[in-house]
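B., you asked whether I could sanity-check this one before it goes into the benchmark set. Here's the sequence:
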Amino acid sequence: MNVLPSACLKDVTTAAPLAYESRELLALNAYVGVQSRGMPIAPVVDENTKPFIEAGREIFQRRQGQLNISCAQCHDQYAGRKLAGNVLPQGHPTGYPMYRLEWQNVGSLERRLRSCMTGVRAEPYKAGSEQFVALEMFLMWRARGMSLETPAVRP
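And here's what the prediction gave me:
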């Protein structure tokens, strides 16, 4: 999650927190991710994280926006089908931050989630919100055991 390196930086140094989606934060996230590249995703599930994972699961399954569609409908029911010429993935966040061709730059998982929400015509949550943290935690839990491939490249 984008929050962690910036929060850690603030807690162990006198440096100011890095702004969301800033080049510096994305670079730091990519650097930390590369150090773990190929390792299995193993989120900690305990009394502190479990409520976020459950809240994220609820958000993932809830219909949203004018299109009245849930994340689960696209990324579970329709995974492998095409949308606007691109194959719908199962929504595993194994490569974030990643370079997306549509962005012509590196972006965070939160940026991708905002884009999905806009795509179904839902109002995206505030940057760094508890909802985004919960959804990211759930997605990492869903991807447990998969290899980290940060930074990845996608269309």
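One thing to flag: Residues 23-35 form the longest helix (13 residues). Otherwise nothing jumped out at me.
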